[in-house]
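Protein modeling request. Please complete all fields; requests missing the sequence field cannot be processed.
Requester role: graduate student
Desired output: 3D structure, token encoding
Chains: 1
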Amino acid sequence: MSEPRQEAAEAGDAALPVGDRNPPRPRLVALINQKGGVGKTTSTVNLGAALADAGRRVLLIDLDPQGHLSLHLGIDPDTCGETVYDVLLDPEVGLDSVVHKARPNLDVVPANVDLAAAESELASVEDRHAILTRKYRAAAGAWDVVLLDCPPSLGMLTLNGLALAEEVIVPMQAHFLALQGLGRLLETVSLVGRGVNPDLRVSGVLLCMHERQSSHGREVVSELKQFFREAKGGDQAWSGASVLLPAVRRNIKLAEAPSFGQTILDYAPNCPGAMDYRTLAQRLLERWDKEDGRAGDAGRLAPSASVQTAVVETVREESSTPSATVSVED
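Delivered output (330 residues):
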């Protein structure tokens, strides 16, 4: 194990109480939407930061040639050395050799514009959709959660992400046109899943830039809830999906943070956006631990005052707008 990987493993172990060195099984999550500008990269970065803040060892993989995830964390894609492009195109480059340690418990595999050429360069490579999966397996064990920031297109980069992932989260805005595109996106994910990854499932929709007071937004949320209710018990890839709570409120601080190379937890840790991502991370951990038969483990790290405040504020705001309230279990 390289030195950064050893440091990450030690940091993760240090977060566990003495006598509890049985980490949760790794969670491999792709964040995807065919439409740009919906908060996908913002959610990948800040959800990852919140999960790391909760004590999980997190890896973020930037699969978008724009490299915005890397920039968001203060990593210059043009000077960072080897990137995910090298992982995909060079058989000698391992995933762990290009990892940057961005924060305690938070690692990043960066991307830059070179990645745009990967689509054509991989065209003649055998089993090209499984390259990232093979490279990850060689380094597996160093992280508890892997979040993949997929580009807004269904090409070879997204296919590599979906081949590795176990579940998909769809960041979107509560707008009519976004709702219309969701059905096609889910069908596409299902088709890809059947072709390259039969275990792939859609776990939920994450609402970004959300305006709780908007009647239009509430109507879209209501339709989403009904759509997922009707899918329950079926054999679709999204039959277990839900609207994830809390919806991330529209917040200028979330837009400002990337220009400083910071997560929202660094830049404005007590703003509504930070509170929403912290609460979302905690609820995802509770869901994952419940699925793994580890009920209560998500709370084994005493929540900080900021996390407690986030939960209280979220509950207070949701209870004041009941028509917009949705549940992870709904």
